[in-house]
Amino acid sequence: MRKLKAFSLLIIAMTVMIFAGSISETHLSVNAQTTKQTNKKKKPAKKAKKAKKHTKAKHKKATKKKKTVKKYAKKTTKAKKKTIKKHKKATKTKKKVIKHKRAKKKAPKKGAKKSVKKTTKAKKVVKTTNLIVTNSNKNTDDNYYDSVDGFNYPADQYATPNATDTLNIPSNYLFSFDNNSKKVVQYYSVNKDSIIESQKINTFHPNAADVNTRVDINNLTFDQQRQLSQYAADLVNGLRHKLANNYPYTQDLTVTDKALNAANDVAMGYSKNNWNFATKHGHDTAVLNDVFNRYKYRAYGENIAQSLLTSSYIQNQINIANVKESIYGAICAMMFDDADSSWGHTTNFLGLSFDRSAKQEFGVSIDKMGQIHFEIYQ
What we know:
Order of helices and strands: HEEEEEEEHHHEHHHEHHEE
Strand order of the largest sheet: 2-9-11-10-8
Strand content: 5-15%
Structural class: alpha/beta
């Protein structure tokens, strides 16, 4: 009887152990399934992030010097390095910035040149086609102006005989002049209100003579290229002077025949290669480096912006005022709304990436895609 009881207790104990093991296995199985599902949910999120990163990688800056090559991996466009800058939004320009610079102030020995690469997003035009202004009554008033803005900076509706343009600095601007160091410095945070304010206080003023001067952007004359380059140089130099209270912290941009020819060669190279920086995700560094070497410069920087100058939605023949407005809007966007390019275009235009004691030669050109090239050389 005792043996029978003992045997019954043993059977009961074994049954309990087997049931407990079954519960344990079931629990582990559920946890494993849950983990697997969680992984599946997270994977798409990672992919989306990657794709977003890829979409963002649009602005390059390059700088070249002979023999050694350095990369400036910081945000878009900087110091002793080469800078290439972008405009943001649907069709921003960003332009890219490319720059070359010597590593030392001493005149290097033969072959002692360096190259430095910098990256910035290209600036695209932001304007959509339904925002382009057209007016059926335009022919009744020679001073009426059809805006071709692509950068969210407004233009006057009517041209005036003595219209001039300037760049106004918004409050809480990211860059300021330090009176102690006598240098332009950059803050670490961006004030969005400053960007919005810049779009309210900067307006393009079309000149009546420019409105009535037709132009073929694919065949600009040398005098037209010089006029447009000087217009851009005056805008940038004026902002530099305002920012530094007229202290010459760097050399002004100077339009030269050599820089104009070099800039024209850059535009021709982009056109020949059908290089649209928006689809190629950056500057055509092969063209930029070739021009840099042929003209024997020691440093260079390029800011590039898309425009609406070749848009099929523009119904009237392009005039000089249209081109100046595109230049004005692109420079405003690069100076005041360049956060998406880490302010690389701004740095380039302010001359912070160049030898501040050396002459800065400057030229503007336009390629067949309507991309505006701002070339700075030393």
